[in-house]
Amino acid sequence: ERVEDIGAWYGILKIITYTAVVSNAFVIAYTSDFIPRMVYKYVYSPHFTLHGYIEHSLSVFNTSDYKEEWGTKGENDPDTCLYRGYRNGPTDNEQYGLSPHYWHVFAARLAFVVIFEHIVFVLTGIMQFIIPDIPVEVKTQIQREQMLAKEAKYQHGLKKSRDTDYEEILHVLREQSNNSRQGVRGSWARRLSRMSDGLDAHVEISNRPRQSLESTVWEVT
């Protein structure tokens, strides 16, 4: 049996494609330095370059804030050290909390995910419109076959309906003939029953004993 497309696999492959696009967008946004570099270049850099990006991506930590389990500060230890991350400094109100730069980069990453997936989906839709799944010639042939199948089905239905009507007419005629025969038989039966009733009544009347006046005895008191 021929089919027009791959059936249920089309939806499955479509879901896999969308999932792959979204996952790639998150991978690019959160596992690479592309977004932080672009944010620094177009938001924080005075000359729209990456000069000074390394210093901008580091945060300051005061070594005097070491915890006891980390060990005590030695004489040769520096007063401050730098680590990678967007955190507040030791002199800020919220020490070592997330800085505004972190939220800027976070929002830029989410925006990149949304923009990236929309661009990919739009390009995919344009390509699907330009390159159809079924060629025009094949689509025309399929439509022609469907039309021929409908015509054959219609003709088969007409023939079947004609045969059915003919059988119904024969059945009705047979029922009418049977009913007419039963009606004739019933009328003759009614006539015969009436005649038999009349004969029975005549026989009963004739068989009754006649009472003569001569046999009557009158008693006078």
UniProtKB/TrEMBL annotation:
InterPro entries the UniProt entry points to: Anoctamin (IPR007632), Anoctamin_TM (IPR049452)
Domain Anoctamin transmembrane: 1-145
UniProt protein name: Anoctamin
Lineage of source species: Eukaryota, Metazoa, Ecdysozoa, Arthropoda, Hexapoda
Keywords: Membrane, Transmembrane, Transmembrane helix
Listed GO CC annotations: plasma membrane
Highest taxon of the lineage: Eukaryota
PANTHER family: ANOCTAMIN
Topology class, membrane: Multi-pass membrane protein
